[in-house]
Amino acid sequence: MAYFALLLLTQSPVVSEFLAKFMVAYAILNILVQIGFSFIVEKNPRIVLESTIFLSALYIFFVISYFGGPTGFWFPLVYILIIGSFFYRKLWGFTSGVISILYVIAYSVIMSNLSINTAFVEALPIIFAILISIIGGYLLNNRVESIQQNENKLTKVADKLTTQQSQEHAVLTAIADGVYAVDMERNLVLLNKAAQGLVSWDEKDAIGIKCWTVMKLKNQDDISVCEKDCPAMKVWNTGEAVFRTDTCFANKKSHKKIQLSSSYAPIKDYSGKMVGAICVFRDITREKELERLRNEFVSTASHELRTPITATEGYLSIVTDSGMCKPDTKSVEFIGKARTTLLNMSKLIKNLLAVTKIEEGKLETTITNFSIHDLVVEVISVFKKQAETKGITLALSESKTLATGTKKAVGRSLNVRADQEMLREVVNNLIENAIKFTDKGGVNISIDYDDEFATVNIEDTGMGMPADAQKHLFEKFYRVDNTATREVGGTGLGLYITRSIIETFGGRIWVESTQGKGSTFHFTVPLALD
Amino acid sequence: MTKIMIVEDDPTLRDIYITRFDAEGYNVVSAIDGEAALSTAVKEQPDLILLDIMMPKISGFDVLDILRATPETKDTKIIVMSALSQTADIEKGKSLGANAYLVKSQVTLSEVVEKVKAVLNQK
User: Fold this and answer.
1) How far is CA A362 from the centre of its chain?
2) Architecture of domain B3-121 in this structure
3) Which end of chain A is more exposed for a tag (fewer CB within 10 A), N or C?
4) Nearest CB to B108: which of A306, A313, A366?
5) What is the mean pLDDT of residues B105-110?
6) What is the pTM of this model?
7) Is the CB of B104 less than 8 angstroms away from the CB of A310?
8) Domain A289-360, what fold?
């Protein structure tokens, strides 16, 4: 208020020019002192600026008045003042607008001694101009405010994203399993802390480069899988998750081999398009080592068991075969039963050994070309007597060559390519089973040939098996749950080994069965290419 | 009486072989490892040697090699007995001069006796 009073006073002719000049000088000095003070007291430059402008605004009127009032050269400063005020706050804008209008009217009243109404009318053009500035300023303020609002919104969203990112990062860092992800070009886009530790690569070095430079995945034969057997590629081809327990890599620093159990999945964007693949893996070196030791133990134990069996069998054979002893009929009979039992025990041990070899992937094979037909004939002759004793038939029926429409050279060999002794095992096992489970009717074997495989079918009219059993039949330790079969015996390993053998040579084995009617086992062997 | 030498490091197996061949009427001598086998073979001059492959210190293949290189034993009948059934090993045995190769896990004692008789009858 004092300022206004002073302001108006300077306009009054009563006040001398000197006083007026003094007051302007005083005003300017005041502003400078205030600014200085603000700087010292309020460290925030924004507040300093604001208070400076506020003070200056007041003194602008002094300047304007001194230099000619509303019609003077400096009056347009008012417009700037109004618009400037709007820049900060609407209230300031309106206030300065109103003050400006009042000033103009007051000036006219005082200087020209007009009545308020007249002064108002006289000053209308200027008032109009002031109003325009007010409107302009108001619009400007709206603009500024909406920009401010957008900025705030963006800041909020950015904050939220940062929080989320931090959360995700925190989760990934906390996971004990390794996680890595690649884009469609197999560049690494993610490598979490655990993964970094396992491969001994820093995130900043690894991200962006090709995945096979960092994750040098190899299979159990120490050959790189990245070119032909990449799990990420498989994921993209099938669209499904892939699980592997056969990969390993060497740590960059220690060169230690680390065995992995890993699962791969595709990464899709919101529209369902594939944009990458993600892998979660863990170190199973210890588990694999334990498994290997267990396998080795079973293998060693099986070997060790052979010797006492051989010795027992040897002594029994001395009693009955050597002529050194003179056993009576009963002794011979019982010893015979003991020897059969030993034979079974021996078979079981052989199976156990075979299983350990299969598990280790160390099944030794001698691959030759041979006639599957002749092999089957040989095995049938071994079981002929057993079938006769049981009163069932055992026969090999005519082979069929299935026409597949492709021209083949005449005289094409119908030999198969596999390990002959192992195939003998397979046929042996299947025929033995067929006879075991058949009490009436018989066992019929047939062989079909197509372009690539020979398919052997072993059909029996035995007790068959339920659908549930068919599903699990070829699994390790599976035995059909049936009191009748309990009597017949079995370890549950035979079919597992049979399947492993067939699959090693690239064939398939499956069964069709109706409970009470019979079963048919089928298996395929690849034909020899000669 | 035909003399047979059993070379086998496992005592249980060695016992049963000796007992059985004794019962069959052969004169049986034995050795528990490769070194003993070589010296006993020269000393006793058996008609046939049953030679185990998996032995400590020297392997049966080396023994076979040396036996065939030694004038006193170069023509002795030798049957190699092994737990190994790999074709490569069987070939090795034959190429080093064994008269026959038997895989322990695939033959019964009676079958071994048959083989011994058959090899002894070969000329």
Assistant:
1) 32
2) 3-Layer(aba) Sandwich (3.40)
3) N
4) A313
5) 82
6) 0.55
7) yes
8) Helix Hairpins (1.10.287)
